[in-house]
Write a structure and sequence with these properties.
Helix content: 25-40%
Mean pLDDT: 95
Shape: globular
Number of domains: 1
Distance between the termini: 34 Å
CATH architecture: Alpha-Beta Barrel
CATH class: Alpha Beta
Bound molecules: iron/sulfur cluster
Order of helices and strands: EEEHEHEEHEHHEHEH
């Protein structure tokens, strides 16, 4: 186990709130969202522009863990920004797991931290490659991710999806129309049929929280 240094540790925090998980395989699960401040990428359609800069918003880990513990929610989603830019991510994950709550990390999959190795099999990593990073996926994320979430926009096509045959074979791929737009929903359905004809089952899912105007 990591040595606990909760008292001295801070997390660069953008926001902490409760809602439902609105995206991917765990859609509908009630969750505490911990949004990390700072991202190494700049996607053109990013819906969290205020979470991108690496401005200092250090909040004591102890305070964050106490807040999470107050909520009855059994699931915690660490998102961003990009969670792997937070050097104290392993301490946050360790603290949440000690509460017997499940942990999900939503990542753009370009980064990894060696200290996450000991928790990797206990958590749900959602890998969401981005066009602006050339669809890069760190080998460790590829090894441990339980889900591949692909935003369907003008950049995504069948050739890109076929680069992720390992995920396609595990039937853990979600196609998410960008911004819940009708044009991308239709494109997602077409990609789903193309993949079906190649023997792969994928899900098409909207951003549930946005349909119902949740945070
Ligand atoms: S990786 Fe995520 S947080 Fe970063 S710019 Fe892209 S959509 Fe925004």
């Amino acid at each position: 186990m990591l040595r606990s240094k909760v008292g001295k540790t801070t997390i660069n925090l953008n926001d902490l709130y409760t809602t439902i998980q609105g995206e991917g395989l765990l859609s509908g699960v009630p969750a505490v969202f911990v949004r990390i401040q700072g991202c190494n990428l700049r996607c053109v359609w990013c819906d969290q522009p205020e979470a991108l800069s690496f401005s200092q918003r250090g909040v004591e880990l102890e305070r964050i863990l106490k807040l999470i513990e107050l909520y009855p929610h059994g699931h915690v989603v660490i998102t961003g920004g990009e969670p792997f830019t937070e050097e104290n991510l392993p301490y946050l994950v360790e603290g949440i797991l000690k509460m017997n709550k499940s942990v999900q990390i939503e990542t753009n999959c370009t980064l990894w931290q060696e200290r996450m190795e000991e928790f990797a099999s206990q958590i749900h990593i959602t890998c969401s490659p981005k066009a602006c990073a050339g669809w890069e996926v760190h080998p460790k994320i590829r090894q441990y991710a339980k889900e591949l979430k692909m935003v369907v926009d003008q950049n995504l096509n069948l050739d890109v999806l076929l680069k992720f045959e390992d995920f396609l074979k595990k039937q853990c791929v979600v196609l998410q129309p960008e911004g819940n737009k009708e044009v991308f929903f239709q494109k997602a359905l077409e990609l789903q049929v193309n993949l079906l004809n190649l023997g792969y089952q994928v899900r098409v899912l909207p951003q549930l929280h946005k349909l119902f105007h949740l945070k």
